[in-house]
Structures are given as structure tokens and as C-alpha cells.
Hints:
The chain is α+β, with helices and mostly antiparallel strands and 116 residues long. The chain has one helix at 12-34, and strands at residues 41-42, 50-55, 58-64, 70-78, 84-90, 95-102, 107-114. A 4-stranded antiparallel beta sheet has the order 1-2-3-6, with no helix packed on it. A 3-stranded antiparallel beta sheet has the order 5-4-7, with no helix packed on it. A hairpin with a 2-residue loop joins β2 and β3. The chain is elongated, with a radius of gyration of 25 Å. The termini are far apart. 20% of the residues are buried.
Amino acid sequence: xxxxxxxxxxxxxxxxxxxxxxxxxxxxxxxxxxxxxxxxxxxxxxxxxxxxxxxxxxxxxxxxxxxxxxxxxxxxxxxxxxxxxxxxxxxxxxxxxxxxxxxxxxxxxxxxxxxx
Length: 116
């Protein structure tokens, strides 16, 4: 049941709505402050149509129309832990993600090289 507020005092429903609005506004602000940046960093140059991407603790190797058939190596640089490398043989024209890795703390770089 709703109470009728005394003159000059807000009703309990109005007070609850005001508190809920304040909580919602603070929650949205906190999410915007804490949420990680969703954009990825990447190597500045493509190596035979491939390059590395990284964001937060994750990274991957990606090709956009690989220009040569052969072995490609990706190296992930992780902060405060061992780096990781992987090699994959790809065909000329390959497009897509071909490797991914997750660091425990933070990934600082990923690099793709064509080995031949």
C-alpha cells in the first residue's frame, strides 16, 4: 500500500525512485571507469599480409590475404611472465585469425614474421 505523504515530505515511492536513480547513475559511471578499452593495438606494418593484434591480456595473429605460402611465426610479449611463440604453415591467400594466446597479467605486443 502507498502512504500519502505529509505536506512538504515526498512519498515513499518518490523517495525510492530518487534513490534508484542515484544508484543507477553511479553504477553507469563506475562501469565506464572500470571497463577496459575494447580497441586493439596492432603492429604498424603487415608482413606478407599478416600482423599481430593485442588488447589487455589477449592477442592473436591475423592475415588479410597472405601474400606467400610458407611458415609464419607469431610472438606474444607478456608482462612479468615468459613470452610465447607459435609457428603455422599458411597458404597464399589465407585470410583469418590463425593463432591466439592469453597472458596472465598484460600483453604488451604481438609480432608476426614470415619465415619462408
